[in-house]
Design brief:
disordered N terminus, five-stranded mixed β-sheet, 7 strands, two-stranded antiparallel sheet, about 65% helix, alpha+beta
Length: about 375
């Protein structure tokens, strides 16, 4: 942590010093070239002292102006005016007095027709005070702009964190909703098969073990490669295959250029579960389930088809589909879509579309 934070602490003072130095050098060069073009003698040392004193004093006054800016932020224009109008008058006065005093001590009056600091101050006051007031308000505006930019960046970061927390919460809710009834049903099926069909009982135990392992391994992952998602889905379907026996046939039509695509974790399982529970479970004859993945330009297209009983009239969106829609909305916004439709030949189709991107594994620390 210290190796990351320390450079940032030093960067700001160095950048400020460089900025004000460039401004001072720019003003010095401009004044010198102007004097040369007008045929006047050029005293570079006096110009350097004058400009560096002006702008380095403003660099020193910067933290005070920043503090005043923070105190007036978010309190309306009355508070803003009440703080900064008298502050600008006072800070500009102090700047002019100190600047001219340093210049008088270091360089003296030069060619000015004065012999005392008081006379020199009166001669230079009006122009320099006006310039100091202008610089105060320019610094204030710049600080307010930087503060607004920082607040916007922090707000975006908070929103991103909240969206990530929401997606994680929805994924946890999905897992909690999935596991109890699925585990109970699977354990009941294993119990029933233990004596009548021990081979299938052992198969269900093995697939259940694989499914729980994959679920625990990915419990914190918001996104996984499609290949990993399909591995989890195969474990789930193998268990369901034992339950349905010959009444269920499944087909995975997965394009090879999509297996490394990044997808939200457990995005397909709720859709497949809906197809089995609401479409194929009560179907008297054998049913088919198909999962399709394709890349369509910059989007990933996923589809779950079944030839079950189809959507009943006036069906309401259930937990699985609603959770899927909300998770895609949080992760991808308006670039993602979920479509639920009744197939003309019978059954139900669910289509997902969201931005395609290759999965990049996070480094292990």
């Amino acid at each position: 942590m210290s190796t990351r934070v320390t450079p940032r602490r030093w960067n700001t003072p160095i950048l400020l010093l460089g900025f004000w130095t460039l401004i001072a050098l720019s003003y010095t060069l401009s004044a010198g070239l102007s004097a040369i073009s007008e045929g006047h003698p050029t005293n570079w040392s006096r110009m350097l002292v004058w400009n560096f004193t002006v702008f380095y004093l403003w660099m020193a006054l910067g933290p005070l102006i920043a503090r005043l800016s923070r105190q007036s932020a978010g309190h309306g224009w009355r508070r803003f005016a009440a703080v900064h109008v008298p502050a600008s008058l006072g800070v500009a006065l102090a700047h002019v007095v100190v600047h001219l005093l340093i210049y008088w001590v270091v360089c003296g009056p030069g060619t000015a027709p004065v012999t005392t600091y008081g006379a020199f101050l009166r001669m230079q006051f009006v122009y320099n005070y006006h310039f100091a007031l202008l610089i105060y308000w320019v610094i204030l505006v710049a600080l307010r702009g930087l503060d607004s930019q920082r607040r916007l960046r922090d707000e975006r970061l908070r929103n991103a964190q909240l969206e990530s927390q929401l997606a994680q919460s929805q994924l946890r809710t999905l897992r909690v909703q999935l596991q109890p009834h699925f585990l109970f049903n699977t354990l009941n099926a294993i119990s029933a098969l233990a004596l009548a069909d021990p081979i299938h009982a052992r198969l269900m135990i093995a697939r259940l073990s694989d499914l729980l392992r994959l679920t625990l391994e990915e419990r914190h992952a918001l996104e996984v490669p499609l290949s990993r998602e399909l591995e989890l889905l195969r474990c789930y379907l193998d268990i369901q295959q034992v339950r349905f026996q010959d009444r269920l046939s499944t087909h995975l039509d997965v394009a090879m250029d999509t297996v490394h695509a990044s997808v939200p974790s457990m995005i397909l399982q709720p859709l497949v579960e809906n197809a089995l529970r609401h479409g194929l479970l009560d179907k008297p004859e054998p049913g088919q389930l198909q999962i399709v993945s394709r890349r369509e330009g910059g989007q990933l297209y996923l589809r779950v088809d079944d030839d079950g009983l189809g959507l009943p009239e006036g069906v309401a969106e259930g937990f699985g589909l609603g959770n899927t829609r909300e998770r895609l909305q949080v992760l991808f916004g308006k670039t993602a879509s979920v479509a639920l439709a009744r197939k003309a030949e019978g059954g139900t189709r669910v289509e997902l579309r969201f931005p395609f991107r290759e999965y990049v594994a996070e480094p292990v620390l």
